[in-house]
Amino acid sequence: MESLKLYRISDKYIRFLKSRDPRVQDNKNRRRPYVGVVLYVGDHRYFVPMESPKPNHANIKPGRHIMKIDNGKLGLLGFNNMIPVHDAALISFDIGKEPDVKYAELLRRQISFINRSKADVLNHASQTYFSVVHKKNAFLLKICCDFKKLEYACKQYDPNH
């Protein structure tokens, strides 16, 4: 199984998707934009954002839509915020070029844990997607991006416009 790698997503693509579904999260800022992993869910490549550890993560119960990274000590993966990704919007993330040494170490530990748990990560992504798209789980429909609408938008995306 190929290792998952870290990526960022272009601001332009995020704005494009957000115009189709307001639940798409914004890139935070230049200093700490979204960083996440890219994987296949069905026929589509999806970007799953990671979050740095926060005190409120201790109160979050893991479920289909959330996977705590090392029991939350290293943050979490937000499957409710995963988005289909166009190849032109992917920006490879090189941890070695991250100037914040503590943040770079956190990212190394996160991606190491994620790759050791790759089967579980893929299962969470598939389960979240299936529960939203096919089962129409009421709770997940409220907190997840509209995957089907965004898949359609992804196909329509023109990086030259």
Descriptive account of the structure:
This protein has one domain: Thiol Ester Dehydrase, Chain A, CATH 3.10.129. A hairpin with a 7-residue loop joins β4 and β5 (76-78). The protein has helices at residues 11-18, 101-116, 118-133, 138-143, 147-156; strands spanning 6-9, 36-41, 44-51, 66-68, 76-78, 83-84, 90-92. It is globular. The model has no long low-confidence stretch (mean pLDDT 93). It has 5 helices and 7 strands. It starts with 5 loop residues before the first strand and ends in a 5-residue tail after the last helix. It has 161 residues and is of the alpha+beta class.
Keywords:
5 helices, seven-stranded antiparallel sheet, globular, alpha+beta, Thiol Ester Dehydrase, Chain A
Radius of gyration: 15 Å
Q: Span between N and C termini?
A: 36 Å
CATH A-level architecture:
Roll
Largest sheet entry: 7 strands, antiparallel
Low-pLDDT stretches:
none
Q: How many alpha or pi helices?
A: 5
Globally, the shape reads: globular
Q: Let me know the average pLDDT.
A: 93
CATH topology heading = Thiol Ester Dehydrase, Chain A
**Which structural class best describes the helix and strand composition?**
alpha+beta
Binned strand content: 15-25%
| Number of beta strands | 7
In short:
The chain is of the alpha+beta class and 161 residues long. Helix content is 35%, strand content 18%. The longest helix has 16 residues, at 101-116.
